[in-house]
Amino acid sequence: MSADPGGGSVLAAWERFVQGEDHIPGVRPLVAISWHRCREQYRVDPHLTEAPVALPEFGHAPEHDVVFAELGFRAASVANEVGNLGCVVTVTDAAGRILAEWGDQATLARAGGCNLAPWFCWSECAVGTNGMGTALEAHGPVPIRGAEHWCRAFHDWFSAGIAVRDVVTTEPIAVLNICCWRSELPASAESWLAKAVTMTQHPLRRRARDSGAELVAAYTQARGRSGAALAALDTGGKVVIADDMASVLLGVPACTPAVDPTLRWNPGLPELIAAARYAAGQAAHNPDWVGSTQIFAHLADEPTSISFRPVFSSGHLIGNLVSFGASDGAQLPQAEGSAHPSVQPRRLIAIRGNRMVLLRLPEVSFAESMGNDVWLSTEQGRLRAASLSLDKLDNELADSGFLRVHRRYVVNLSRVREIERGLKGDLVLIMDGRVNDRVPVSRRNAPAVRRALDI
């Protein structure tokens, strides 16, 4: 079987792209974006012939061991079914290091020739586009076939990977991958991968809900001891609960617990989120750590002092209590918790066919999440964003005049032309442009929208 699913067109596009061209018709957008990272950001040699040795093991949360064990069980079971097809099944950690593999012995021996084996690194920054590494950069099953691989030496492989992601931080924990030598993957491969990840994430979701309830309990106890404005944030920087004053500064509903991780509020303050993640990293290594910094909160003309105090459950960090107006503990490094607005991206990357479109921020009216994709409403029409996460886009654009108004929408406030009020007080934003798009505002985001638009 040809290792080029495009009948030669993908290989021809690859040859042009590695020489510096950008027009690559016939290449899937996911692959084109990955190639762009490999060439421009990671600078991976496309003529690399084998994967490098992985770095030493890094720390991970205790519940992640459950993920590795569950993925190992599922990988071993499917390997028995696909072994006679010449397939190899691997489990990889968040750094792209292969932890274990199963499959046909002849194919395993062939895989060893390019270091497709335990203790070698298959992240994109190490070997470019591949099922395991690209799955760490994307959401959902990621098939990479033949010449779609960045390194020429891997063009005879067909693979598909999917990442298991932390339900709180959305950071990858592990990757489950299946690959074959010079033959297409079984038709059921992608659905099997998706089902395996769904089953693996069930205990993570239960644990996250339990942790949310424990954060609310810790917040309630702390409220009885302090008069300072207080909020509880999870390890991803999202708000689980905030009192009246903290809710105004964070732009979220007051005294409303959000135990389920899918319902927690994004404060739209990149500095706060960055500081919360830094605090989580420090507390994970030192349970007694307490730190402080300054941020620009909503409706504040001057930076506000905040302090972080970690909350643990059974020795595992589950979040932080954030006090406003306090400056206890160590000062966070300027790079992690600067009191000055961070530099935001001046361009957004969108996809039109097989081309990447670079958009200036004023060209974007709003972003909408639909399924696994994010779509941008622009002056050039409706374009699919390179970013696969509306949360990530929201964080990047929060200090650039964009606001989250609904779980599915982030709008450019400067492009709001009219505001329509419904009979029950619901708000709908009428965006400027040729089609006057209508964007709904959710009830919980309505207060932040009214403050931002001064209505």
General description of the model:
Helix content is 31%, strand content 28%. The chain is α+β, with helices and mostly antiparallel strands and 455 residues long. It has three domains: 9-205, Beta-Lactamase (2-Layer Sandwich), CATH 3.30.450; 226-337, Beta-Lactamase (2-Layer Sandwich); 347-453, LytTr DNA-binding domain (OB fold (Dihydrolipoamide Acetyltransferase, E2P)). The strands form four sheets. The protein has a seven-stranded antiparallel beta sheet. A hairpin with a 6-residue loop joins strand 4 (157-165) and strand 5 (172-181). Helix 3 (64-82) packs antiparallel against helix 7 (189-223). The longest helix has 35 residues, at 189-223.
Relevant terms:
31% helix, DNA binding, globular, GAF-like_dom_sf, LytTR family transcriptional regulator DNA-binding domain-containing protein, 455 residues, single chain, alpha+beta, Beta-Lactamase, OB fold (Dihydrolipoamide Acetyltransferase, E2P), 12 helices, LytR-like, 3 domains, 7-stranded antiparallel beta sheet, DNA-binding, 28% strand, 6-stranded mixed beta sheet
Distance between the termini: 63 Å
Query: What is the number of beta strands?
Result: 21
Q: Going by CATH, what is the homologous superfamily of the largest domain?
A: GAF domain
Going by CATH, the architecture of the largest domain would be 2-Layer Sandwich
Walk across the major sheet and give the strand order. Answer: 13-12-16-15-14-18-17
Q: What's the alpha carbon Rg, rounded to whole Å?
A: 24 Å
Structural class: alpha+beta
Pfam family, one: LytTR
Protein name: LytTR family transcriptional regulator DNA-binding domain-containing protein
Keywords: DNA-binding
Domain HTH LytTR-type: 348-455
